[in-house]
């Protein structure tokens, strides 16, 4: 990723965007303290700050680290490198229940460390002990499930890892001063539909469905977002209607079906069907990223407010989001399949892969939904001749190299920058694919595929640059939100009455 300048840093600081955490540090001249961009302290005035690329640089200039946001623990910092990979893995294992069923000593054995060393580095990098982290995480997960789900208290106690309802009640009373049921008193069901057991519509809530409700930051243009996914939905893998997005999933070894229902009150209701009830919050986090629910559109659109090219597009659709992805490997495959072909052709190619190589889902889960398979894992696709699905020899080779990359056992631990570097080394992966993957796969708010034909058409239609070089230059004034600028330029090609991106030369028509 490119080096960011001071103006970009201050814009990110105003929004407290955690995607910039670790990429720069803010030093306040009036206090002599430096912070991470996500620090909860009051934002200092522009003339009182100085920005540094590393914590070490800020210290070398005489600034002291903030005690609230702890710059030494920021991702990508020197303190977060090296042993931080071990801490990150420890956190992941704890979130998966390592300390619910085992001890710190057992966790240390799994990590190849001594228990004393694990406690020390864990506290150095997180500020708490492994046990305290696990306890706090259980409390936070439980409170979210109490307020936002339809699960019983017994189910919540089990999913959050308390082991028993009594321990759950005692822990919640000790932490919050109230019994768990107190958090549900006075709550009104945000659903605009009732449980419809026996209904002929499989997209409605059924009796045994788990439900989690999410609230996007407003404004939120769900119609356009659903149109984007509808145009790119892979047959057999996804189903997208006027007010829902549906797909199968596999977490914890158990298959399930997820239906995201976009309600009239602006909320999103996630309905889950399947035996694994412990993945509700994990799936909720994926949905937040998939639909970019946490974007601060007020701060982002303020950057575009006086821009003659973008301002009319923002006024027309103030709540556009950058669509994310369900899975990075799936998106990487989609990007390669979509090179120099239409959206419809890319969908057809992806559908062939899903039906031929994807895991079939049980009929009792997916009956009537149009969902039949999961997207295949990298190891499943390795070694197959993908020319047979309709690819050229060169495109098949590129896709094969991408599959081999994601099949590596350490991919879950690799940073976004490392993945981009590996992708860039693959023949047939050019700047467009890298920017598109950064934009949707990594959630980089500043990724900008300037060579995209749809973006160039949208720019030209609004009187902006007509070449990638000129547009790239102009886009610098939209930093650090160029991914949102790209989305607005794509939206220029879509009539107000139709958000489906039908047959437009948009993000899939490009050259690498």
Can you describe what's shown?
Residues 88-186 form the HTH araC/xylS-type domain. Its EC number is 3.2.2.21. One of its GO terms (biological process) is base-excision repair, AP site formation. InterPro entries: Ada-like_dom_sf (IPR035451), Ada_DNA_repair_Zn-bd (IPR004026), AlkA_N (IPR010316), AlkA_N_sf (IPR037046), Alkylbase_DNA_Glycosylase/TA (IPR051912), DNA_glycosylase (IPR011257), HhH-GPD_domain (IPR003265), HhH_base_excis_C (IPR023170). Its cofactor is Zn(2+). The chain is of the alpha+beta class. The chain folds into five domains: 6-78, 3-Layer(aba) Sandwich (DNA Methylphosphotriester Repair Domain); 82-127; 133-182, Homeodomain-like (Arc Repressor Mutant, subunit A, Orthogonal Bundle); 210-294, DNA-3-methyladenine glycosylase AlkA, N-terminal domain (TATA-Binding Protein, 2-Layer Sandwich); 328-491, Orthogonal Bundle (Endonuclease III, domain 1). The chain is 43% helix and 9% strand. It has 23 helices and nine strands. It has a five-stranded antiparallel sheet with strand order 5-9-8-7-6, with helices on one face. The protein has a four-stranded mixed sheet with strand order 3-1-2-4. Strand 8 and strand 9 form a beta hairpin. Helix 3 (84-95) packs across helix 7 (130-148) and helix 7 (130-148) packs antiparallel against helix 8 (153-160). The protein is globular, with a radius of gyration of 24 Å. The model is unreliable at 76-83, 189-193 and 498-508 (pLDDT under 50).
